[in-house]
Amino acid sequence: MRSLSSILSPLPLSLTVLQNKTGHLPLRYLPSLGFLRTKPYLRAHYKAPTPILPDDSQLSDAEEEDDDDDEDEDGEEFAADEYDDVSGDAYHGVEQSEDEIGASADDAAASTRSSFSESKLQRVEKLCSEVREFGAELIDGDELASVYDFRIDKFQRLAIKALLRGSSVVVSAPTSSGKTLIAEAAAVATVARGRRLFYTTPLKALSNQKFREFRETFGDNYVGLLTGDSAVNKDAQVVIMTTEILRNMLYQSVGKASSRSGLFRVDAIVLDEVHYLSDISRGTVWEEIVIYSPKEVQLICLSATVANPDELAGWIGQIHGKTELVTSSRRPVPLTWHFSTKTSLLPLLDEKGRQMNQKLSLKYLQLYAMERNSYKEDSIKRRKSRRRGGDINIKHVDGITLEAPLSKNDMNAIRRSQVPQVIDTLHQIEARDMLPAIWFIFSRRGCDAAVQYLEGCNLLDSCEMSEVELALKRFSIQYPDAVRESAVKGLRHGIAAHHAGCLPLWKSFIEELFGQGLVKVVFATETLAAGINMPARTAVIACLSKRSSSGRIQLTSNELLQMAGRAGRRGIDKMGNVVLVQTAYEGAEECCKLLFAGIEPLVSQFTASYGMVLNLLAGGKLTSHSSESGEVKISRAGRTLEEARKLVEQSFGNYVGSNVMLAAKEELSKIDKEIEMLTSEITDDAIDQKARSLLSDAAYKEIADLQEELRAEKRLRTELRKKMELKRISAVKPLLEELQNGQLPFICLQYKDSEGVSYSIPAVYLGKVDSFNGSNVKNRILGDNSFAISIVGAGSTDGHLARHEGFEPSYHAALGSDNSWYLFTEQWIRTVYRTGLPNVALTEGDALPRELMVTLLDKDDMQWDKLSDSEFGGLWYREGSLETWSWSLNVPVLNSLSDKDEALYMSQEFHDAVECYKAQRTKVARLKKKIARTEGFKEYKKIIDMTKFTEEKIRRLKTRSKRLINRIEQIEPSGWKEFLQVSQVIHESRALDINTNILFPLGETAAAIRGENELWLAMVLRNKILLGLKTAQLAAVCASLVSEGIKVRPWKNNTYIFEPSSTVTDVIDLLDDQRSSLLNLQEKHEVRIPCCLDSQFSGMVEAWASGLTWREIMMDCAMDDGDLARLLRRTIDLLAQIPKLPDIDPQLQKNAHAASSVMDRPPISELAG
């Protein structure tokens, strides 16, 4: 199969497009951006963690810090370690060491040499020839460095020298810093010696990319590829493979010399992206490779910057052999951090890079608002301020009263008013010549919607447009079914999306065009940051949170830095740019909090699987018997449980636990004791004793009596506040029923987040969920316990009050002005307005607006995220769609809704409750003033101030304690218990006798399978029921075993999927009984390994295996292209394994081979080079 590079390589593209273009054509039809600032932008300084390894085992390229850095105050936080200090103008160059200046100059020179790849291949061939002639002693660091026509970095030289000394090496350096060069140099040395090197990656796409890159360096004959889908030149000297492939190879060679195993003549193993060791679902694989690898094989572990590389190097050194650590915190292309608002692009950090730019803080906004009169009186100053672009314009912010200091609602209104549209941020970065950019949006629909939104903007000149058109035409001829028609218009204008919903061929095409400068903006999900070599000048990160199976979660600092690392192209850009964006819920404070949070450590995820247990314990195979005695012929001896335990307990988690656990627990004990002591100092009795000792008897009695009275009045105030809330909630219900006749009333929802920040959301009210007959949302609320309302039977004061008032909460639905759906009880409605959207059909015969919106609400069965909770029910939300966007735009902002329209105040009972609460609040305030005027208040206030100081100290200690507890939980030794539990399931299922280590046929099959639940797959494939299936039906059943994580994603009119045949459905129903038995057995032994069996998508696979074309299958399909392609590839992978599995019926093997052959056709075929 031809590679995409062969399609794109003939395109004429001068290097000036990539290198020297400083002014793309401006965005078509867009206004001028004259308001943007030109003040220099600065980036942050980060300090690397102090290593705990001995000095002679660690190498570092870190330069000595400036004296100024040593004078920083204790406790001052720095942004994460990936970036060193740079001061000065980011747009006019930065100070560098002589080494760096030389390297940058060499990089720039190298980028102008059009024959670089060819000349590097020639240099490698020359070195190999010289080694064959003069011997391996010729190879040294300088010889390997001479392969490159630029000066390699210091950390790269240090790592290469460590390898030449025979050590394994752990390299921890920022993303895009050039770690692959170390592996490439090791491969050059290995090939020159006539030996072999294995290069592992976590992703098939990354393996394919590395395969192409290494073939350019070594030539086709020296490089091979092994993935689940491809096996190309597998006996080559350099073999690229996925980590799971290598782990399975090592199972059969644990404890053997490499000469007697599958690693014959292998000198080195490269573990690229070794920080995947922390991945919950796959991290075990990296640990197993380190544990099982022969000690004479060098390990080259390449990791992004993590907090504990010394622990990783120490662990590998302990179980594998001498290991050296090389760290680098310096990026070849420094990063500048920006923050985008609706009106401007500002530096995120201050000039020292140690804290947030104060012009982005809410305090600054408040100060600006208070000083607005001086700006109003002086129009000249106002105009100068706008020209500088440094002051955020808030005079048009909705709902803000500028005559008083800003309230939380005012600040929230300011933040929401500063949320930029995609076009706003694109304006800003395009005007500053910050393209090309990778724009991270954490949803596929968000990426696609952004491309469609910008289709009217053209980022290409006429020459570039012609080149894209030519490339697109060639791609269409080569892969007609792989063209993503909905994305073509944007692609012609230099805008594209890249996510898991796209076909692999299309994603590779986008990557090629982006690399050639023909795509200026790529909207991508975070998967693009996972090692794919696609650097840009700018990385835009749209928000700091993303959806997960458990709801919306915040990015980790490691994830943020991984994405940020895509910014800055070595040899092309002097500076990389990272742009964080204001959202309705996340501002510059949250961005800096995450940036300064520090890099997270690697955490062991070691868990036992059926494949691991079977391969480690298996001994004799029950395949033949003696005709006379009937005894089993033992082909090899299995490991005992004790021998297996020694291997399992070599996990990274156990190593970290043994060294760190004791110190962490000791510190935690000290903190707990200090908290206990400080808490005893601020009890009521302790404060009372201090007051008695400092005050006279008369002064003490006066304050004590008033304090007791104040406590009583505060309790009454709390009760009145709760009663007022209940009166408000009770008044809402009849108002909603009354006001929705003939219209969809506007409402205001209000809640507080976990940090106490209040949010107000205008929305259009749809109705009570109970009234949505047959609705998916109604069924979801009734059937999901997480939506349960706990007021009935509640023992709290609120519960008693609610029952006394006769209040029975229920769920309602609304569409917010932010184009999000909301589910809520009356608790969260701040007010109801008498105005709303008319509930009248546009034309006679059309559905009413309420019916249309309820249909849209029901259309997507997506995950609901909880914003806040109470015993009166929760407040939930989920994102809307393009179809709901126009409805949300008709929801007015809060300040355009008059107070007179607030129907809530028509309730006399609520009005009376509000007045009672206000009166009590005034009474409490007066009592506080009375206490402040007492004789001994000054001395008493000192006691109170000291108490507050102590409380703050306790809070800090508790925060530290919580961090330590989390760390201890992460490093708790584990693995062996799970191993024993899994082995019991294997024993009782008759796959392996753990007492004699005899491997039964079921276990023999399971040990050879690659999959999430090897035992379950083996049980299915050994079932005779599969023998009567045709090839397409067999493929459909296999698809039901590997469809976990694949989802239906209906979009507009795309709601169709093929149903499986009745034969397939019947077989899956029969297999479900077998699955239930295995699940019961797993539950008995507390094993939680999924057993997938889902017929939902079997019909799609059956249709493909029956010969339907891609266009026929995808017509009105409710699946994304990429999802279906991924399911088909998984199915092909399982089918391709069947002919190679032991003790499988030959007829099934024949059918599986036929099915995999007919399914493996474009456009789902993977690129293999």
Automatic annotation (TrEMBL):
PROSITE patterns: HELICASE_ATP_BIND_1, HELICASE_CTER
InterPro entries given in the database record: DEAD/DEAH_box_helicase_dom, Helicase_ATP-bd, Helicase_C-like, P-loop_NTPase, RNA-DNA_Helicase, SH3_ISE2, Ski2/MTR4_C
BP terms from Gene Ontology: nuclear-transcribed mRNA catabolic process, 3'-5' exonucleolytic nonsense-mediated decay
Residue ranges with Acidic residues bias: 61-87
UniProt GO cellular component terms: Ski complex
Signal peptide: none
Annotated Helicase ATP-binding domain residues: 160-324
Coiled coil: 661-723
Keywords: ATP-binding, Coiled coil, Helicase, Hydrolase, Nucleotide-binding
Pfam family name, one: DEAD
Stretches that traverse the bilayer: none
MF-aspect GO terms: ATP binding; helicase activity; hydrolase activity; nucleic acid binding
Disordered: annotated segments: 48-88
Helicase C-terminal domain sequence ranges: 418-617
Protein's name in the database: DExH-box ATP-dependent RNA helicase DExH15 chloroplastic
Species in which this protein is naturally found: Rhodamnia argentea
Name of the gene this protein is made from: LOC115757515
